[in-house]
Amino acid sequence: MDNPILDIRNLSKTYKGGTTALAGVDLQIRKGEIFALLGPNGAGKTTLIGAVCGLLRPTSGTIEAFGKDAARYWRDVRRRIGLVPQELAFDMFAQVDHSVQYSQGLFGSPRNDAHIEEVLRSLSLWDKRSAKIRELSGGMKRRVMIAKALSHDPELLFLDEPTAGVDVELRRDMWKQIGALRDRGTTVILTTHYIEEAQEMADRVGVINKGRLLLVDEKAAIMAKLGSTEARISLSQALDVIPQALASYPLSLENDGRTLVYRGGDGTGKGKREVAELVSSLVTQGIAFEGIETRESSLEDIFVDLVERGEVPA
Known about the structure:
Strand content: 25-35%
CATH superfamily of the largest domain: P-loop containing nucleotide triphosphate hydrolases
Shape: elongated
Order of helices and strands: EEEHEEHEHHHEHEHEEHEEEHEH
């Protein structure tokens, strides 16, 4: 990848107790993309974010951001990064606009009331600007955290579980806000447990587990490589074995031979085409059936399978 905005090479982090949180992570992020990092609890997502943002020191490896060594030029790098942590952390008695202005000053940015107003309006917080943070709902508090992270107009924004604890309506509204950030040129890296969130917003997806990055690719490429189709055909009469004429298809018999199961395809429509051919072959062979149920694998299916396997299938 040419000129990535973030370039992580062989990054590892082992804590004093011997726990390895990151194990040789390589990751390059393109300028202007939304990148979703998926992984179960304890996979290393927050540790990776903390290393890039200077909140912890990696054991080994290098991080370059905006073409600069993050360890050597940490002050300049950190000034160009925004972080929305997973945990809510602010003065609950502070006024919303004062809290956001305070964050702007922490990064050495001159006071810019017009920018603060733009950020608050974009997150539907302008009408709440004079409210105490403790008076807000959980979803609105999460928006304040995002506003604080955007207060200094960062080029790279980290969102650690950005929609945790918000209802469906607010979640979808925040998806729109994140999309708007990308449209403005902000590069967004988000971690999430909501697979639907990654599928809806991300340009590329990475899967991390036990500190190892298992996969990084475009969503469409992941579906093409690891997606599949399952078709369950209820037969009128049980089969003892799969007929030789159907041997070229990835088939198995279940339910004492009364259900013919197809599992194949590649996420690009190949499975659907083969199921249609299979049905035609059943008719030609005089094998009667009573019904067909088909299902395409989702990004969530692929994610769960990767985590369980611990590796990308060959």
